[in-house]
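Can you give me the bound-state structure? Components:
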Amino acid sequence: MMRFLAKRVMQGVVVLFVLETVTFFLVRVLPGNPFMGDRKLPDEVLAQLNSLYGLDASSFVQYARYWKAILVEGDFGPSLVREGVQVSEIIGSAFPVSLALGSVAMLLAVVLGIPAGMLAAHYRNRWPDALFMLLAVAGICIPSFVIAPVLGITLGAHVPGLSVAGWDNPLCIVLPALALGAVNAAYVARLTRGGMVETLSSDFIRTARAKGAGTGRILWLHALRSGLLPAVSYLGPAFAALITGSFVVETCFQVPGMGLHFVNATTDRDYFLIQGLVLCYGVLIVAANLIVDVVLAWMNPRLRA
Amino acid sequence: MTRVSVSLLLWCCVGGIFLLVGCGERGESSSSRAAREGVLLIGNNSEPQSLDPHKATAVADGKIISALLEGLVRPDGQDSSGVQPGAASSWEHNADATVWTFHLRGATWSDGEPVTSADFAYAYRRLLHPEFGGRYAEMLFPLKDAREYHDGKIDWERVRGVRTPDEYTLELQFETPMPGLLSRLLHFTWFPLPRHHVEANGGMLDRRSEWTRPGNWVGNGAYLLKERRINDYLSVVPNPLYWRAAEVRNRGIRFLPIVNGYTETRMYFGGKLHITNNVPPEMIDYARHRAPGEFCRDAYYCTIFYRLNTSRRPLGDARVRRALSLAVDRGALVQRVVRGAGREAYGFTPPTVDYPGIVDATVAAMTQEEREQMARELLRQAGFPGGRGFPPVQIMTTSRDVQRVMAESIQAMWKEVLGIQVEIRACEWTAYKASLQNGEYDISSCSWSGDYMDPSTFVELWRSGAGNNCTGWGNAECDAELDAAEKCADQSERLKHLATAEAIVLRESPIIPLYWSERTYLKSSRVNGWHPLLLDNHPLDAIELDEEGAKP
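Here's the bound-state model for the whole set.
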């Protein structure tokens, strides 16, 4: 197990290095620069700003300096658009928001998706199956930029305590989490149903039935562990994506999370912020995949070899 | 699973929802609570880039900075072109308005230090410093020798534009007469800086300085910076040491950076805001219907227009440019694109009391059919009868909906009236700016808003080779008029020269003025002391909140 983990961690480090390198050079190929405002900047002022932030050096020198700053000083650099604010501060203030929102959304996805998938599998080809799968397909197909405002103007405007948008009381998390969770709940439901249907038709379940085990016992104790495998391998990366924020949901609900920064940093060419966010996202994805691998190995002994 | 456990699960879900709902306290919305506490909630478009007046350029930043710092004069809350005494209690100028002397009132910074003329001189030196990289440095270029200092040709000691005869006297000397100086001084680039505080926090040239952070802020404005949460809110509270502290009508402001107008409008109706920044065109009818007394439509010092790249064929031909301009039905455009929230523009500078606007009079008086007739004739003269042989041309827009809809409307008008085909290229914001500034476009969708109330902020754009011209167009006659305007000490004479220059621009049409935009926003009936202002530079300390008032 330790060798397996060490190997995966090493692979992760390589992936992060490649990811960050590609991002570094790609963002510098984009047209424009971080200092462009509505009005044209005089050339000499642009030159001053470039030299102040070290952007006048060649890309390779900048690249070397960038890694040195991160590895030696732990400094992710300044934001080039919001001058005077550090990248680490921006991520530090936005990540907890996205983490909270993503976690609640994930919880909703699991709590709604897994039972729905199990029930659908249990009642395969009967009305509960049709109903849940219809809802799941709807959840997958309806984009979040539709779900989010609709939730806002229906539940948000009429249910006391909930709010249309904003981030000024703890219950503000409910609707964005619902909007984010809905899509994932739908995927989880479909994957769970698929896994369960396959498991429920396997020999060991028939044996358990023959030995007189009850429906509940078969579903929860025998079938769930292997029936959940597809859903679990989906949940890892999905969780990483959820806690790094969603531009659409954050815009619709005015949530100060990571998703807004991701898109704005790119359109503003805020080089250091883009790199910081990509690194953060990369670390989370690698970590989530690692955890999924470990969990899958625990759930399915055949993978441990 | 048995039937019992299925229904149990369902009941749990229902119970959960009720529990969730029950948790929420009933009643008071954020805006009512804030009104009770005297705190104004205002939508401020985007997260500020910086609160340092020398690093900021965005309009959203300017609104916050104007609450935190005060210049020599402050805006008049009821008159767009008026000013009130600010850090200066009085001023005078010489006969040709090239030398202005300001007498400071002896106010204090929020840490108790006096606001002196040296703080102003320090601020101007910093913005102009050749190693600082001030993005808005050109605002101070009218000061004598400022440009030379900025270009590193002379030392600050030799700059004649800024002098401080004593602690409370500031003397500004200009290259050319500046009869309209006072309205320029409302812009944040003319504000003072707390010299002692900036020096204590890394010094003049430190771009990473932390002097503008909450808890470390020192200012001379009506408010103090209290809290800033990126992309969430920025809050300010009254400054007890402000010289007019007794006249500040509210107990704080919370600026919310809401970029998306749909979200903002929903939040307003959900009781989260007192004043919004923008109601998007698609929601104008809804907002007007739902809250007739709260929907506002104010004239704004801003022009929506198209730039034509005159260095590209066939746009180098003034007849073609004029034909394109005449073929646009402005009335239909204003209705279709912004639901009537704009005035058809046949001139560039938005009309004001002092400058009624140079409208291309013959064109404005024609009917749209006559204009279209004339457009077809001009295009024929240019060698493209009925649009035949017209080379492929592209309209470049940003990805904003309004611009896309506008481009599609104009595309259809040109096809119908002139028989020419144009393509639309929607670019992401920074790519758009890069293409525009490098002249890599045919026709581009643009807007321009004035920094201060003076037509020169519009007309000066079209000087040959000016940084923001970007059309490749230039005209010696127009430049001569602009030069003459600059040298004029008499304001009415000066405006005449500007008007002549603008008439030349309109005749030559390197641009197609489309409409003068109007701001559409929502304002709660609780808000008192807010009047329409062309520059949207409302003195927020004058706003009083009614606790009663209707929702929201």
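A couple of observations. The radius of gyration of chain B is 26 Å. The CA atoms of residues 27 and 519 of chain B lie 32 Å apart.
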